[in-house]
Design a protein that fits this description.
This protein is an all-alpha fold. Helices cover about 60% and strands about 5% of the residues. It has eight helices and four strands, in the order E-E-H-H-H-H-E-E-H-H-H-H. The longest helix is centred in the middle third of the chain and has 36 residues, at about 105-140.
Length: about 280
C-alpha cells in the first residue's frame, strides 16, 4: 500500500523493523536524528582539526624560536645568527659557522653546554605537559596535579632515601637517585589505587582524590623526617628537589629521547556517528 502526503504536511514518525533498533522512514531510508544534521557536524569537526593543526604548527615555530634565543642567552651572549650558523654546521655540515664573529669558543658553548640543556628542557617539559593532561582527564578535574595522588611526594621520598643511603649504579643514563624517585612515584600511585579500591570497582573519583591527599600528606611527613635524618646530605636532597639542567649531556638527551614514544599526528578529521533513537 502506498502512502501519499500532501504538500506542506509533516511526515509521519519513523517506524522500526522487527528485531532492529535502527529507525527507517516510510521510504525505507535510515533516519538520523542528530541536531543540525550530519553534514554540519562533519564540517565542524573538520574545522576543529584544521585549527588544531594550525595551532600546533604555530607552537612548534614558537618553540624553535624560543630555543634559539635561549641558547644565545648567558654569561657569554651569542647572536641568533651565530647560533643558527653553528647548529647548521653541526647538523647539516654547512660552512655557515666559519663566518661567526664569536670564534671557536662559541661553538663549544653552543654544542657542548647550552644545546643539550635546551633539548633536555624540551624533552622534560613535553612529558610533564602530557602527564598533567592525563591527570586532569583521569581525575576529571582541571586543577589536578601530581601532588593530588602523592606522585611528587613519593618521588621526593624515594630520592631522599637514595641520597641518604646512598644508592649507586646507573641504567639508561640514569643514576640510582633517579631510579629510586621513579619507583617511589609508582609505589605511591599504586598505594592510592589500592586503598581507594579502584581495581575492585568500588572506588570512585572522589575516593581517589581523598585518599590521594591523605597519602600525599603522609609521604610529605616522611620526607621531612628523612631530610632531618640525612645530616650532611641535606644540601644534596635540596638540590635534587629544586631540580636543574646543569647535568644534561648528549648521552642523557639521547637516552631520554628513546624513552619518549612517538605521538601520532592526526591526519583525518574525527568521524561523526549518527545517533538513532532507541526502539520503543
Amino acid at each position: 500500500m502506498s502512502v501519499e502526503f500532501k504538500q506542506g504536511a509533516l511526515p509521519p514518525p519513523p517506524i522500526f523493523r522487527e528485531n532492529d533498533r535502527t529507525p527507517v522512514s516510510h521510504t525505507g531510508t535510515r533516519v538520523c536524528h542528530c541536531s543540525g544534521g550530519c553534514r554540519m557536524h562533519a564540517e565542524i569537526s573538520a574545522g576543529a582539526n584544521d585549527r588544531g593543526r594550525s595551532l600546533a604548527a604555530l607552537l612548534v615555530v614558537l618553540l624553535v624560536v624560543a630555543a634559539i634565543g635561549a641558547i644565545g642567552i648567558g654569561s657569554v651572549a651569542i647572536a641568533p645568527g651565530d647560533v643558527l650558523g653553528i647548529l647548521g654546521r653541526a647538523v647539516f655540515g654547512t660552512d655557515a659557522a666559519h663566518s661567526t664573529s664569536s670564534g671557536a669558543g662559541a661553538t663549544t658553548i653552543v654544542l657542548e653546554l647550552r644545546a643539550p640543556r635546551i633539548l633536555a628542557a624540551m624533552l622534560v617539559g613535553a612529558p610533564l605537559a602530557v602527564a598533567g593532561a592525563a591527570f586532569q582527564s583521569l581525575l576529571r578535574n582541571p586543577l589536578a596535579d601530581p601532588y593530588v595522588l602523592g606522585t611528587s611526594s613519593g618521588a621526593a621520598l624515594g630520592a631522599a632515601m637514595a641520597i641518604s643511603l646512598p644508592i649507586g649504579g646507573a641504567a639508561w643514563e640514569l643514576g640510582g637517585v633517579q631510579l629510586a624517585a621513579f619507583v617511589g612515584a609508582l609505589l605511591a600511585v599504586a598505594l592510592v589505587w589500592w586503598i581507594a579500591g579502584v581495581g575492585s570497582g568500588e572506588g570512585g573519583i572522589a575516593g581517589v582524590l581523598l585518599v590521594g591527599y591523605a597519602v600525599a600528606s603522609l609521604l610529605a611527613a616522611a620526607l621531612s623526617v628523612a631530610m632531618l635524618a640525612s645530616g650532611a646530605n641535606l644540601r644534596s636532597i635540596f638540590a635534587f628537589l629544586l631540580g636543574g639542567l646543569d647535568g644534561a649531556s648528549w648521552p642523557r638527551v639521547l637516552a631520554a629521547h628513546r624513552q619518549i614514544p612517538a605521538v601520532p599526528w592526526p591526519t583525518e578529521p574525527r568521524r561523526h556517528r549518527c545517533k538513532f533513537p532507541a526502539q520503543i
